[in-house]
Write a structure and sequence with these properties.
Helix content: 25-40%
Shape: globular
Radius of gyration: 25 Å
GO molecular function, one term: nucleic acid binding
Oligomer: single chain
Strand content: 5-15%
Number of strands: 7
Organism: Choiromyces venosus 120613-1
Protein name: Tc1-like transposase DDE domain-containing protein
Distance between the termini: 39 Å
Strand order of the largest sheet: 5-4-3-6-7
Length: 293
């Protein structure tokens, strides 16, 4: 297991779930509520939480049954390619799907991306959740995929900064963990990226000989007291560590919670069982056309 994945497991993912566990609404294996809204409020005095997981899945028009009876010496007749397809973006609680599926046809210029997912969550999923579970807070769980973990355009991202001031680097949001004294900033640099060196000097973290980045990722050592490079040293500061994805920020701003599964562990996502059943159904009833799919 990669070190960064283990750290995320042990230092963030599991502690967050553990800290919220006492607020979870629970169902048994027959879908009956065993710990409901009223009970959670009575026991904790806090808002009940419903787990909502997400994933995408693709279906193809020619993805039918692969076994058939044929006469001896005959060749089976079936399509040789998967054909046209659709992609579904769906959300599932522990007992039922939210009726907020987004469906796009695969191919052409139509691509599923972070912007489309954020739009689905903001304009469809959250309103439907709040109607279905009034008074509850959602904890949305997403696979740790690049399209889900994409950060806002003004996110605090050390690797996007130059060592010196200016240059073609994105304008980032203000830091929240350190006081900003505008009088110390030259007028020529105000409103522009200040550079890693100046920023670390202001925070008392710069030392002579600190380089911008390590020669390769494998040589980075975040455990060094003085930092192995400027990128790593800055990325370990609280405000950079607390930077969340655009998806998480949008959900938090709506009064709900979001969490990414650990990387490379899609088996944790129980929606996989739902997609498996859907695949079985479409394969069994396949008639090799996109409209029927």
């Amino acid at each position: 297991e990669r070190d960064d994945v283990l750290r995320y497991w042990m230092e963030y993912f599991l502690p967050v779930l553990k800290s919220l566990e006492h607020q979870f609404i629970n169902w048994n294996d027959k879908g009956k509520v065993v710990r409901g809204v009223a009970q959670v409020w009575a026991e904790t005095g806090e808002q009940p939480i419903v787990l909502v997981t997400h994933d995408e899945c693709t279906f193809h028009s020619n993805d039918g049954q692969t076994h058939q009876w044929v006469k001896e010496g005959s060749q089976p007749l079936h399509k040789t390619d998967l054909g046209k397809g659709i992609m579904l973006s769906g959300f599932l609680t522990l007992v039922t799907p939210l009726q907020a599926l987004e469906i796009i046809e695969i191919g052409g210029d139509c691509w599923w991306n972070n912007e489309k997912l954020v739009n689905q969550v903001l304009n469809y999923v959250i309103p439907i959740f709040e109607l279905q579970y009034p008074g509850c807070q959602a904890l949305f769980l997403f696979d740790n995929a690049p399209s889900h973990a994409a950060q806002p355009t003004d996110a605090l991202h050390a690797q996007a900064m130059n060592l010196g001031p200016g240059g073609e680097t994105p304008i980032m949001r203000d830091s929240t963990n350190f006081a900003i004294d505008d009088f110390t900033i030259p007028s020529s640099l105000r409103g522009k990226p200040c550079g890693l060196k100046l920023l670390l000097q202001e925070w008392g973290l710069w030392h002579h000989g600190l380089r911008l980045k390590c020669l390769n990722l494998s040589s980075c050592n975040p455990n060094l007291p003085t930092g192995c490079c400027a990128w790593t040293l800055l990325s370990l500061q609280p405000d950079f560590q607390n930077q969340r994805s655009k998806l998480e920020e949008v959900i938090n701003n709506q009064g709900h919670l979001a969490l990414l599964y650990p990387k490379f562990h899609c088996e944790l996502n129980w929606i996989e069982y739902y997609w498996c059943a859907a695949k079985w159904f479409t394969q069994k009833h396949c008639n090799y056309s996109l409209p029927a799919l």
